[in-house]
Amino acid sequence: MGLGDIIVVAIACSLCSGGALAQDAQSQSTQPQNEQPQSTQPQSTLGDAVNAMIGAWEFSNADHDKICRFNFRADAVSGGYKLDIDKNCPNVFPSTKDIAAWAVDNYGNLRLLDVHGDAVIELTEVEGGMYDGFKPEEGRYILQAAAAVQVRSADDMVGDWAIARGTGKPICMLTLANAAAGADNLMMLKVKPGCDALITRFGPTSWQMDNGELVFLSARGQTWRFEENDINTWQRVPESPDPVLLVRQ
């Protein structure tokens, strides 16, 4: 091959190399510049963690003598998903008054958020269906699926109780007796003298536990239902602006 042939081949190779470099540069320039880094947790796993939270949960302290209930929903809101909290929760745990939403981060931690998307409480999963967290002013928190929480038995409820309106003084004293009051697993209820007209008009005569709720029944078949706020306080449901509380004595 002569010198002229070598020069021609060299020029051709240079042109091919330059074209390839230009094509590669053009390809890189067309890639999205604002592409975000991928989550360190697979999206399917993150979706499973979110779905596992949907439903009713119990929020308590470590001694389980302060209790309120959360309902985790799938409705998207700013920063996460909507969270419904019992109206009584801020009375038991003041920090919960600011909670409006929830989210699961890439590490599987549960974040309870305010309306701005900032974390009010952060909890870590310690086992399936149970989370815990801590705030110095309120101590240790336990969050567990409502389905996994032990339901109160009738034996747990036997004893003396007071009925109060809101945070006021008691308007009636009564005893949940450990004695049968006929069929259908009903137990005797004894109302003490001096009760408010609200109670005497209702006239409860028996009680029972029904799917975790405490039920009072009158001789006319009317019922009042109570839901546990904490181990010593139950609230009549559905809730009303002037709540009726049942307080252990």
Descriptive account of the structure:
The chain is of the alpha+beta class and 249 residues long. The chain folds into two domains: 43-148, Beta Barrel (Lipocalin); 154-248, Beta Barrel (Lipocalin), CATH 2.40.128.10. 21% of the residues lie in helices and 43% in strands. The chain is built from five helices and 16 strands. The protein has an eight-stranded antiparallel barrel with strand order 1-2-3-4-5-6-7-8. Strands 9-10-11-12-13-14-15-16 form an eight-stranded antiparallel beta barrel. It is elongated, with a radius of gyration of 31 Å.
Main beta sheet strand tally, sense and closure? 8 strands, antiparallel, barrel
Mean pLDDT: 81
Shape: elongated
- What radius of gyration results from the CA coordinates? 31 Å
